[in-house]
Amino acid sequence: MEQNKVRTYLLYAGGEILLVVIGILIALQINNWNEEKKIDRMVSQALSEIREDLVQDTLILQSRITLKLEEVEAQTRVINALTHQTLNEDEHRSDLGKLMLMRETVLLRNGYDYLNDLGISNLNRPELRQTLLQYYELDAAWLHKEIQNDRFEFEDVWLPYARVHFKDWEFAEYAVPHSYSKLQNDAYLLTTLKFNLTNKDGTLRAHSRALENAKLLIGMLETH
Predict the structure, then answer these.
(1) How many domains does the chain divide into?
(2) Which of 4, 61, 104, 187 is most buried per CB count within 10 Å?
């Protein structure tokens, strides 16, 4: 009889332990499921914020592209006038104010930084994840580099020249040289403006690439 009681007790205790283990496993599974749902909600919130940032980015990028194209056209007209010795106040006063300008472009990344804090690996769409990395890491770096080149040419090359050779100058509006004849006979100016067009082309391409990927991301996020 004593032996039978021990056997019964052991069976009962084993059953209790099994139930406890099963309960713990179920609780852990529920907890993991809740954590995954919580992370999914936070990732969705980050993606929503990223989309809002991208909409603003497209506006600023398009604006910069439009302005930069106008500056390229103005600078090209000045280069042609210098080449053919036809520079004059009536036609080129406004164009001279648009030479070698630098404009800052800052991409918004609040939503992307939030997603990074959560862990971008939690985003389970590889294509979307890759495009986000392309835009915020590669496109942004290229854009920053081109703007830094523009900054150097504007601040270190153009402004010192303008202070010496112009009696009046207004950013992107107009410029009045001390002498049009001296300006159009300045080989240094002509060469500098030609070189600068290469920088402008790089800046335009960087903005255009960023704008293209921003629009692509907006479409992908709306589908997501």
Answers:
(1) 1
(2) 61
Q: Residue 187: how many CA atoms within 13 Å on its side-chain side?
A: 0
Helix (H, G, I), strand (E, B) or coil at 1: coil
Asked whether the beta carbons of 171 and 92 are under 8 A apart, the reply is: no
CA atoms of 91 and 9, how far apart (whole Å)? 105
Task: Determine the structural domain holding residue 28 and report its residue range.
Answer: 2-223
From CA 83, how far away is CA 98, in angstroms rounded? 18
Question: In 35-59, which positions are buried (b, 16+ CB within 10 angstroms) versus exposed (e)?
Answer: eeeeeeebbeebbebbbebbeebbe
pTM score: 0.83
Q: What is the pLDDT of residues 105-134, one digit of tens each?
A: 999 999 999 999 999 988 888 999 999 999
